[in-house]
Amino acid sequence: MIVLTVNTGSTSVKLTAFRLAARPGEGLPAPKHLQAQHLTGRGLDPAASLREFLAQMDRPAAVAHRVVHGGTRFTVPTLIDDAARRAIGELSELAPLHNPVALRWIDAAREICGAEVPQIAAFDTSYFCAMPRVAAEYALPPRLGLELGIRRYGFHGLAHEAMWRRWCDLEPARFNGGRLITLQLGGGCSIAALDRGRPLDTSMGFSPLEGLVMATRSGDVDAAVVPYLERRLGVSGERVIEMLNEESGLGGLAGTLDDPQTLLDEGSARARFAIELYCYRARKYLGAYLAVLGGCDGIAFGGGVGEHVPQVRARILAGFEWAGIELERDANEAARGSEALISTAGSRVVVRVIAVDEELLLVRAAVTVAKLA
Q1: Whole-angstrom Cα distance, residue 283 to residue 52?
Q2: d(CA 336, CA 354)
Q3: Is residue 300 within 8 Å of residue 161, measured between CB atoms?
Q4: Tens digit of pLDDT for each residue in 54-74?
Q5: Active-site residues: which are they?
Q6: Statement: residue 26 has pLDDT above 60
Q7: Domains 2-123 and 174-353 agree in fold
Q8: CA distance 206 to 94
């Protein structure tokens, strides 16, 4: 049987089809990759795109969707019925760039595949739902915080969980992976502190805007900046948040470009400073998470930047020899888009580049929720 995964961003989607084949002597089916397509653009037609993608294969037995925001309600993958669909829509207030897009793809999949085909939502926030209270809450009174749903939700949960699971495969001697720091560096960037798979902290918070410097997102900014810019620029608060999301980060600092490798190659003063700030913010969080974990056993880099740009990895880890982190220069330089061990043999902390496979977690969710095994 076929499982379709739909991994949506605000302006892109990755469609992947897997065939499930039972493994001898085991109940859980092993997924075999059939085909994938990555589409970008704000004008994507979900129904037309799905119809074209599925034209040459059997109808899926289930469809699994990545949904960015599940709030506190959705803590595990969930079958998308009418009530779940309404709840995802209600959470659009907290993820206006992502949840409405996911709903359009959910509706399109129902139209193309049929109402009888189960659809499953796996939420980026669910992995962080059990973070310690001290990491999950802001210093706000309940009437201004929790009672209004204002807390640190964390995002990129599927990516961080995927890195942790792969890390456990590669480091079987460490119980549940030990103490691990994962860096998901792509268009959006986040870092997480994991203790044997349990998240203790992560850099994204109430929205995916908090934390590290990203391609076009500012990351951490004093909240007083928003009303200040409202007054100085004569624009709405919504417009200020839009600028922090879409016109800031690496792209805003560098002027036009937001790709770290391109900025490194360009070498202008603005490009150099953009990269310096990008790596500095990641180094600061890395140091903080070493404190949260009481040291660490491993560091994993994933995402488009984390997997492909050695100089960014090297700059983030430079000077951490005091913490037992030693990078093997040649191994790091050679790791461009492939999994690799990039720490020295004598490093107390193991550092790896790990391919982030969110789709396998989506398949796992479909198999479990839709009972396909």
Answers
A1: 44
A2: 11
A3: no
A4: 998 999 999 999 999 999 999
A5: 124
A6: no
A7: yes
A8: 8
- Look up the CATH number of domain 2-123: 3.30.420.40
- pLDDT of 146 > 80? The answer is yes
Per the listing, tokens 């795109």 go with 49
Q: Given phi > 0 = left and psi -120 to 50 = alpha, else beta, which region is 25?
A: left
Give φ, ψ of 226 to 5 degrees.
-65, -55
Single-letter residue type at 2: I
Domain ranges in the chain? 2-123, 174-353
**Cα 280 to Cα 293: distance, rounded to the nearest angstrom:** 20
Q: How far apart are CA 90 and CA 102, in angstroms?
A: 13
**% residues pLDDT > 70 (the chain):** 98
Environment class of residue 68 by beta-carbon count within 10 Å: exposed (0-12), middle (13-18) or buried (19+)? buried
Average pLDDT score, the chain:
94
Task: State the Cα–Cα distance between residues 152 and 138, nearest whole angstrom.
Answer: 7
DSSP string of 172-233, one letter each residue: TTSGGG-EEEEEEESSSEEEEEEETTEEEEES--SSTTSSS--SS---S--TTHHHHHHHHH
Residue 373, class by beta-carbon neighbours within 10 Å (0-12 exposed, 13-18 middle, 19+ buried)? Answer: exposed
3-state SS assignment for residue 114: coil
Options 3.30.470.20, 2.115.10.20, 3.10.320.10, 3.30.420.40; CATH for 174-353 is 3.30.420.40
pLDDT digits (tens, 9 = 90+) for 295-328: 999 999 999 999 999 999 999 999 999 999 999 9
d(CA 247, CA 139): 28
